[in-house]
Design brief:
binds magnesium ion, binds adenosine-5'-triphosphate, seven-stranded mixed beta sheet, Glutamyl-tRNA Synthetase, domain 3, alpha/beta, 27 strands, Rossmann fold, Ribosomal Protein L25, Chain P, 13 helices
């Protein structure tokens, strides 16, 4: 984990503003629209907004940008709160909604009309678009732009009263139809929508546009630094114009930073929703999804996500961050604290021909090879065992130190065995190995230091717990699926592999914390587990597990 407090251009600005006395206290907000689950991009925004406030003894609002009734949902609201808390942040009493300010926003619109700075336009949506001009051509004034204040006030009041149908009128700011910045060409402030709102019900049939609601909500909450992503850079002149006209005192400052993009992944709610709607993933919390809910279910600790976005950093440059960097943060956050267990993902039967058929014993295994304080456990051992199919090779190269015909290997915490016979089916597939064990080599016994070069994990067949194990890979084949026209055309078809695994009995009572399956990675019990059948997700594989093990085995 990186221990250094983060530093970036936004934190530099904030520090300057505190030192100069411009602000005594920093106030930020995280403003999600509740139209989907939060994703990795939001993690960056959450960590930044809550982070800079926490580091300076300031405050942060969690504010729902709920100006789009019909697309927003109570399920998303609950998920957002759960996800922000889980990430480790607390808004305390500062949970707000743009809709809390609907009345104040209406009054602000009336003020703009009274000051001749807003007007009711009755052009059709299409005409408004046509009159707007292009990047190279100035717009044209609407014929309704010169309506009197009295007429505008009357029409706006009647818009609110529900006298008009959707689209009949809009309220627009009166700024400059020739501005080189399209956002200043008389932007729409209010539109008519006869649709119930999840919080205000049928109180309103006119709803404020995002720029209007967002800017003034910032002002009402006393936000000092309004941190948003770069696509809002062109909106900043409008942000400042609105503040100048309506709330010129103690104004917030908008600062933009670049979006976080993770390679082989998408971070757009719309695209994530498409993956769900097309049945490509099982839901918002599918462990392959870059949503907070998905990553939590996958077993990523919150500290790993915080560490990852800190390493990615807050900048003005577009970037595509490697997935491997996220996985490294996950490994580091899981640390070396996860208890070790044995599980066989692709089982191959081993019969110890010289071990008594009815006999069972237990061997003692450390819960962590370097941490005796984590204790040990008893693992049943018997005549029939499962080992990893990959740990046997019939035509093995010289440097293959696991099991091969005539070769020896140590079973972790148990005995050295030798492979005497390879049993095959009619098609020539290896179905079973007949081995013999050397009774004198039991781990911990006098002769336990007899050296062989390989050590492998195993599970006693008659004691094994059956489990479904899910291995995950990246969702896309292309590093930047956003750059492809149809992002669903570059899916990785093998992003989920489901295995019927055999686990040591201790894993039947695995809790919610990740464990390390020796040599295979970190795994965590999935919510799909039932009383009869455990389901485990692989959180992340072990880095260089082979290299490390072969080195250990070579002593
Ligand atoms: P999406 O495209 O997924 O819908 P959004 O920006 O529309 O994203 P909001 O709910 O409006 O989603 O975003 C809430 C906050 O999170 C905003 O301040 C937004 O700028 C920020 N945010 C969203 N995506 C990213 C990202 N990829 N990187 C950094 N911040 C982001
Ligand atoms: Mg949005």
């Amino acid at each position: 984990m990186s221990q250094e407090p983060p530093r970036d251009f936004i934190r530099d600005i904030i520090q300057t503003d505190l030192e100069s006395g411009k602000h005594a206290e920093i106030v930020t907000r995280f403003p999600p629209e509740p139209n989907g689950y939060l994703h990795m991009g939001h993690v960056m925004s959450i960590c930044l907004n809550f982070g800079v406030a926490a580091e300076t003894g300031g405050r942060t609002f969690l504010r729902y940008d709920d100006t789009n009734p019909g697309k927003e949902d109570e399920e998303f609201v609950r998920a957002i709160e759960r996800d922000v808390r889980w990430l480790g942040f607390d808004w305390q009493s500062r949970l707000t909604h743009a809709s809390d300010y609907f009345e104040a926003l209406y009054d602000a619109a009336v003020l703009l009309i009274e000051n001749g700075l807003a007007y009711v336009d009755s052009l059709s949506a299409e005409d408004i678009r046509r009159y707007r001009g292009t990047l190279t051509e100035a717009g044209t004034d609407s014929p309704y732009r010169q309506r009197s204040v009295a007429e505008n006030l009357d029409l706006f009041r009647r818009m609110r009263a529900g006298e008009f149908a959707d689209g009949e009128h809009v309220l627009r700011a009166k700024i400059d139809m020739a501005s080189p910045n399209m956002n200043l060409r008389d932007p729409t402030l209010y539109r008519i929508r006869h649709i119930d709102h999840q919080r205000t019900g049928d109180d309103w049939c006119i709803y404020p546009m995002y720029d209007f609601a967002h800017t003034l909500s910032d002002a009402y909450e006393g936000i000092t630094h309004s941190l948003c992503t770069l696509e809002f850079e062109d909106h900043r002149p409008l942000y400042d114009w609105l503040l100048d006209q309506v709330e010129p005192e103690g104004r917030p400052r908008q600062i933009e930073f670049s979006r976080l993009n993770v390679a082989y992944s998408v971070t757009s709610k719309r695209k994530l929703k498409a993956l769900i709607d097309q049945g490509i993933v099982s839901g918002w919390d599918d462990p392959r999804m870059p949503t907070i809910a998905g990553m939590r279910r996958r077993g990523y600790p919150p500290a790993a996500l915080r560490d990852f976005v800190q390493r990615a950093g807050v900048t003005k440059k577009d970037k595509l961050i490697e997935m491997g960097m996220l996985e490294n943060s996950v490994r580091e956050a899981l640390g070396d604290g996860a208890p070790r267990r044995m599980g066989v993902l692709r089982p191959l039967k081993v019969v110890l021909t010289n071990y008594p058929a009815e006999q069972t014993e237990t061997v003692t295994a450390m819960n962590h090879p370097n941490r005796p304080e984590m204790g040990q456990r008893e693992v049943p051992f018997s005549r029939e065992l499962w080992i990893e199919r990959d740990d046997f090779m019939e035509d093995a190269p010289r440097k293959f130190f696991r099991l091969k015909p005539g070769g020896e290997v140590r079973l972790r915490s148990a005995y050295i065995i030798q492979c005497d016979e390879v049993v095959k089916d009619a098609d020539g597939n290896v179905v079973e190995l007949h081995c013999s064990y050397d009774e004198s080599t039991r781990s911990g016994s006098a002769n336990s230091d007899r050296k062989v070069k390989g050590t492998i994990h195993w599970v006693s067949a008659s004691h094994a717990v059956d489990a479904e194990v899910r291995l995950y890979d990246r969702l896309f084949r292309e590093a930047n699926p956003n750059a492809v026209d149809d992002f669903t055309s570059v899916l990785n078809e093998n992003s989920l592999e489901t295995l019927a695994a055999k686990l040591e009995p201790a894993l039947a009572d695995a809790g919610d914390e990740p464990v390390q399956f020796e040599r295979l990675g970190y795994f965590v019990k999935d919510q799909d587990s039932t009383a009869d059948r455990a389901v485990f997700n692989r959180v992340v594989s072990l880095r260089d597990s082979w290299a490390k093990l072969e080195k250990q085995a070579l002593g």
